[in-house]
Design goal:
By secondary structure, this protein is α+β, with helices and mostly antiparallel strands. About 15% of the residues lie in helices and about 20% in strands. Strand 2 and strand 3 form a beta hairpin.
């Protein structure tokens, strides 16, 4: 999902660099669509479990957690009623955890689930908070969760730049809490997010086709918005490796590639940070990456989307401005030309 957009081959190649065209040619054989046989009953979503209410059960929790994930005391995942999407069913868990864009682990949708779970550990895990802020530090992930908790559940729409969508029940905390913890200085106007770099264990990062490690960015105002979220869990369970364990950015009004996975560093900076996809193809992937049905990708339409798990006869649904979150975020872009600042 999400982290990386596809390399599709349709439409015009004008104004595309030779290097980018070479990459497209190399990956032209890949299949990006989910086969209908992979769609499973939505009853899975009803098996809602508490997100580590075992957190409060001490050592007993360790018996039910995946290898390498330890119990953390005092956390829960109470659903925040402001973000529950009434009348909308979450995507089945097995689709969310098996249909992923995470190019560090492979270019096909099914590769991250396999390759990211061959011994790669996300505990222990340190997160560095730095740059232009008063409270620079390096924290163990569990220490960070303790500082910014409690954990809450939010059900968010997820819209990939590839024109497919999901509805995901994330467990985590507002990004604004981390911003407050860091205490950015007045000159800090942006946040740069940097993912892990582990080419020894990570096959995709041994390739020179991308500028590793993965980087993304937000304005400080975007980071403080009520919707901006840091996920540490999914469907009441610790975040899976293929979904960006142990913590990932979630900004539901933007295309999924903005939601950087497996974060290792969060920095407060004065200048707009360079991001991986914007560096690779700046005419296709802008810094803002807001979901906008009125601005097509140069090679495909963004006016509609295919719903993952919707079934063979479900067709497509219209894409909503800002992915349906216009009320919460439109003010962030007042006076900004969204066609130029895409």
């Amino acid at each position: 999902m999400d982290l990386n957009p596809p390399v599709r081959f349709c439409g015009s190649n004008r104004h595309i660099s030779v290097d980018t065209q070479r990459r497209r040619t190399r990956y032209a054989h890949l299949e990006w669509d989910l086969p209908d046989s992979a769609v499973t009953p939505e009853a899975h979503y009803l098996r809602r479990r508490q997100f580590l209410r075992v957190f409060g059960l001490g050592l007993a929790a360790s018996a039910v957690l995946p290898p390498g994930v330890r119990a953390d005391p005092g956390l829960n995942d109470a659903l925040n009623g402001l973000y529950k999407l009434d009348g909308v069913k979450p995507t089945p868990e097995d689709l969310i955890t098996s249909y992923n864009n995470f190019y560090e682990w492979g270019l096909a949708k099914d590769q991250p689930k396999d390759l990211a779970n061959r011994g790669w550990k996300t505990r222990p895990w340190a997160v560095e908070i730095g740059g232009s802020c008063a409270n620079t530090r390096k924290l163990d992930i569990d220490e960070l969760i303790q500082l910014v908790g409690p954990i809450e559940r939010r059900i968010y729409r997820h819209r990939c730049v590839e024109a497919w969508s999901m509805v995901i029940p994330w467990d985590g905390f507002p990004l604004a809490k981390l911003v407050d913890l860091a205490q950015p200085k007045p000159e800090a106007k942006y946040i740069r997010f940097t993912s892990f770099f582990d080419p020894t264990n990570c096959p995709g990062q041994r390739s020179n086709d991308f500028v590793w490690p993965y980087t993304e960015g937000l304005t400080i105002a975007e980071a403080r918005n009520e919707l901006a979220f840091i996920a540490v869990g999914l469907y009441g369970k610790p975040l899976r490796n293929q979904n960006g364990a142990p913590l990932r950015l979630v900004v539901p009004w933007k295309y999924g590639f903005k939601s950087a996975k497996s974060l290792a560093k969060i920095e407060f900076v004065a200048e707009q940070p360079r991001t991986l996809w914007n560096q690779l193809a700046p005419n296709e992937y802008g810094f803002y990456a807001n979901v906008n049905p009125n601005v097509d990708h140069p090679r495909w339409s963004q006016k509609s989307e295919r719903v993952i798990g919707g079934g063979f006869f479900s067709g497509k649904q219209p894409t909503l401005m800002f992915n349906g979150y216009e009320k919460q975020v439109a003010h962030l872009y007042a006076g900004l030309d969204l066609r130029k600042n895409f």
